[in-house]
Amino acid sequence: MPEQAVPGSSEHAWPLPAPVPSGPRPRSRRSARDWVVDVTCFLLAVASGLVLVGITVSEPDPPAAVLVFADIAVGGAATLALWWRREWPVAVALLLAVIGCFSEMVAPAALIALFTVAVHRRPTVVLAVAAANLAGSAVFALLRPAEDLSFVWVVVFGVLVTAAVVAWGMAIRARRELVVSLRERAVRAESEQLLRVEQARHTERTRIAREMHDVLAHRLSLLSMHAGALEFRPDAPPAEVAAAAGVVRASARQALEDLREVIGVLRESPDEGGQTRPQPGLADVPALVEESREAGLRVRAEYGVADLGAAPSVTGRTAYRVVQEALTNVRKHAPGSVATVAVTGGPGTGLTVDVRNPARTGGVHADALPGAGTGLIGLLERVTLAGGGLAHGWTADGEFRLTATLPWPA
Known about the structure:
Elements: H1 32-57, H2 65-79, H3 89-99, H4 107-120, H5 123-143, H6 151-232, H7 238-267, H8 285-294, E1 298-304, H9 313-333, E2 338-346, E3 350-358, H10 375-385, E4 389-394, E5 399-406
Parallel strand pairs: 1-2
Antiparallel strand pairs: 2-3, 3-5, 4-5
Enzyme class: transferase
Region (Disordered): 1-27
Keywords: ATP-binding, Kinase, Membrane, Nucleotide-binding, Phosphoprotein, Transferase, Transmembrane, Transmembrane helix, Two-component regulatory system
């Protein structure tokens, strides 16, 4: 899992702690830490067992030497089973619990095995192994009763020690699970951050593509119309040819300026506080229509809004883009036709933009201009984000109609 994923920086591995297993632990090579812990546990179990046997031997009525020797031999051999407590903790703990019924030497090793079970197994398994340990200690107390302690006190002491070992092991298990959970949350949060960054990049690319389409498609369609006029009228007077060429050059320059300004606006960070190009609004629609007329497109415009400049910025900008896209599509797909633009509405009633045009009539620019086919899709997304709706299609009268409804709060 990546520890850190910041654009422009390298990634570093972040090792996670191994999750606490609930089943048999797979065999693996012991690390240096495992070797130290295992050897320490073995030496501690042997030393503690010898101390217990020594205390028993020092009593006024010690057991027979043969029993003591057998206890040390069997207990010492059983203590070697701790080496496999990582792979089979339950089996080792139960084996030591059974041997603990007869051997005092194995008691510390049995507690270490019980601790391992408490760390690596479910509570139900831990309680079962703990009960087996208590049963083994009770049997040992019956077979070899202590002179200065009653059977009840021996059992109570065994319960207290077993409960302490189990509680300690389960506390370590809970802490390990908590650490693993926190690490997983951190990794998941970083993964989600990577997804958010990637989504932001995708959104920005989509925004750039939309702005480029809205700005350049309109400008380049005008440029194509002027160039087409030069192509279809090669015998025009030199003055008209020069004028048309000047319009083509001016349109190309304006397209480049629009491209530079759009990219500049999109690259600017909100924190930079730089000057950005004012976005067009509803008040700029008449100028847009007039620009299309100058390019040769026949447009009838009707404005049923008392004050075009009073429209909200989002509503006005969206309405402008709707008219711009509609007129661009008319120049591409229905050259020579007459487009009708109607903008009506007001505060409280909403804003309606309706653009109609008949099918293409041939003539100049009979070859339709190429298009990406995504203009209406992007326009629908823009109108939807503004809280409005968009409808388009052919009417019964044979006209293509594009209608956008946008909110205009009172």
